[in-house]
Input
Amino acid sequence: ALRSLELPVEELQQRLAVFEQKIAEIQRERVAAGDLLAGDWKRSHEFLEAHAEQLRGKMRVYLDGVIEETLARNGHDLPSEATLQSALAAAIPGYCEHHVGGTTAQLARHVVDVLRPHQQRADHLIETVRRTAAELFDVPYHAPESSGAFELVEQPYWVTHKWSAQLIPFPPGLLESILSPDARKRRLRKRLGEQMGQLVIANVEKIRWAAYQSLDQTFRRFTGTLDERLAATIAATHGAIRAALDKRQQHRAAVAKDIAR
Output
């Protein structure tokens, strides 16, 4: 602002024109950077979907093991369907809570890796604005500090979570009373497998959806922060120069007082 008040008006106008051309160029680069960020945002969704698909498979294997372990504990006696359902219901919360933490940690590492180049790119744009202003108006220049790591947003979604651990029992029916133990076991496993599949889908979806919301919140906050930092830098440089020029053109008598102040 001081240099803008001291320079001759014609020279100030020339330097401001050069600066505005550079700002327009930077704004175009920011649009291109935004397109790259949007692409990484989409690919992060794909990363999460692939992780959720793997988690569904792992959970299915785990719950199959719970059923087999419960059957083995009963030896030759076939446990009731309610007993097997209770075993599954007891196993689900701990398993899911463990994988909530694992999903969060894995997604956090992914987000940091993905966003780091965008942060560096934004720092470069902001640095260009400041350096250009410094060169045009002969003021000291200090490179901006990095904004720090953009971490995964805290998850408030699981605090009151209730896992889908309730199963609807199917009555064995008259037919099963006359079947052999092996046949009854096969039918029991089939019914439990269908119910277990529903449990896997429901519970993994809760993990996936919480992570999905957090991922979107992270990218929205990151994008907004970059735009705010760039806009603030432009306002602090271009805005000050523009205001000084307007004052020079409209209130010449006040310039000396402003310089003194």
About this structure: Residues 146-152, 154-170 have pLDDT under 50 and may be disordered. The CA atoms of residues 68 and 189 lie 9 Å apart.
